[in-house]
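Revision sheet: structure tokens.
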Amino acid sequence: MSIADRLQTVRQTIDEATVRSGRPAGVVRLVGVSKGSAAELVVEAVEAGLEDIGENRVQEAAAKLPVVGARVPAEPRWHLIGHLQSNKARAALSLFDTIQAVDSLRIAETLSRLATEPVPVFLEVQYQRTADRYGFDPDSVEEALAAIQRLPHLGVVGLMTVAPLGLDGEGCGACFATCESGATGSPQRGRRSPSSSCLWA
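Predicted:
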């Protein structure tokens, strides 16, 4: 099955789930994760209509972006979805359109200090804490949100979570539903309604 065929299948699944949930069409954005995949495969996915690409590592994105950008008529939006170290924050700001893994106040402050223009960010929350995952505790996310919203250059557009390994479909769904509930219930101080971003590990 080609990448274009797979993309069509995934989109159909998303559309069917959107209808079942009673949501309006087009509210779900598909971000294709290219971790470990060659740049040529990313080009093929973009040519098939994928508009958003997620990368876990800054250095891997730095190698792929020039290749992809030179071969597609319209560049995709790039999302950083992996843990970001402070010493790579400047590079991340130059590469990614959205930072989806702001998992501490410290990294938020670093991004704010280094950024020269508004940056959309998601706050990563761990609803089921595991030792190998980063993110805010659910009980502290509202306090963190209030502090980060006061920082210049950062625009919090939602929450992000990663489902723990080993969960079945129902367990992942419950984890993501909790993330969405947290996003829609968070105070936004006049900003637009927040989103939730969910990754199935």
